[in-house]
Specification:
Elements lengths: L1 H32 L1 H25 L6 E11 L4 H14 L3 E8 L8 E8 L4 H9 L3 E11 L1 H27 L4 H32 L2 E9 L3 H4 L3 H51 L1
Parallel strand pairs: 1-5
Antiparallel strand pairs: 1-4, 2-3, 3-5
């Protein structure tokens, strides 16, 4: 009987130990499994800014600096070449564009009237300027070309930045550090050279800005050819129109030749006669 009671007590003790052990194992399992999501979240928090920066870097494109130039050949009636040229010049002035060159050649006996215009306009006003020219003339040819100036702009900006920082450091050294006269003179010489380099780089950068921040346009105005000039017999018509002038030019050349040799004839013929007479007398002796 006592043995049976002892066995029962032992069984109850083991059962109670098992019930206590299960919560501990459950807690241990939950504790061991709980940090995993936390680590994943931390990894996600660490990786997210890097991914955002990569996405932003991929979206940002390097700015390109292009020098764009348009070449146009426009045609207008011969009597309207000057008027159309002056209208284009006034249109450019009203838009406050940069006028680089403007020339007009009037009609001559052999050449029709012509004109040329070179300007720079802001990119946003290019269509407006071009429409003003196209509405009053006939465009025969329109050529567009561009040159990439990105490398030159980036190099010039970097050079300006470095030279400016060097100049500032030299000025600071000259103002703060007491030094010998020789050292001061050396700093001033280097400062002067650095400033001259900055001025040259600034001029180059300004020239690049004029090329990349504006659109260059070259326009050639020419008169519409007449029917005779366009026809099959145009060379014959031109020869007939110039026949009288060519004949008179030849006649003028002959007159010029005789007038040129006349003094030599007046002087040379008597000399030859005298020389012949003297020669005969010598032979007779």
């Amino acid at each position: 009987m006592r043995l049976i009671l002892a066995v029962c007590v032992l069984a109850l003790g083991l059962a109670s130990c098992g019930q206590k052990a299960n919560p501990v194992s459950a807690d241990f399992a939950s504790a061991s499994s709980a940090p995993a999501p936390m680590v994943a979240k931390e990894d996600m928090r660490v990786a997210s800014p890097a991914q955002d920066e990569f996405a932003e870097a991929s979206q940002v494109e390097t700015k390109r600096y292009l020098a764009v130039r348009h070449h146009l050949i426009v045609e207008t009636p011969a009597a309207e070449v000057k008027a159309q040229f002056e209208a284009a010049v006034k249109h450019c002035e009203s838009m406050k564009c940069q006028m680089l060159n403007a020339s007009f050649s009037g009609e001559t006996q052999y050449n029709p009237a012509s004109a040329s215009l070179s300007v720079r306009v802001p990119p946003l006003k290019f269509d407006e300027f071009l429409n003003g020219v196209e509405t009053s003339t006939h465009v025969l040819q329109h050529q567009r070309e561009s040159e990439d100036k990105t490398d030159a702009v980036i190099d010039t900006d970097a050079r300006l930045k470095n030279l400016t920082e060097l100049r500032d450091r030299l000025r600071k050294m000259l103002a703060e550090q007491p030094a010998k006269i020789k050292d001061i003179l050396d700093i001033e010489v280097q400062l002067t050279e650095t400033q001259s380099q900055i001025d040259r780089a600034t001029g180059i950068r300004k020239a690049l800005s004029n090329e990349t921040d504006w659109v260059a346009i070259d326009i050639q105005f020419q008169a519409i050819n007449s029917v005779t000039e366009k026809g099959f017999f145009a060379p014959v018509a031109e020869a007939l129109s110039n026949a009288g002038r060519v004949m008179m030019s030849s006649f003028a050349s002959i007159i010029t030749f005789f007038v040129t040799i006349l003094p030599w004839l007046l002087f040379g013929i008597p000399v030859l006669l005298l020389a012949r007479k003297a020669w005969r007398k010598l032979r007779a002796k």
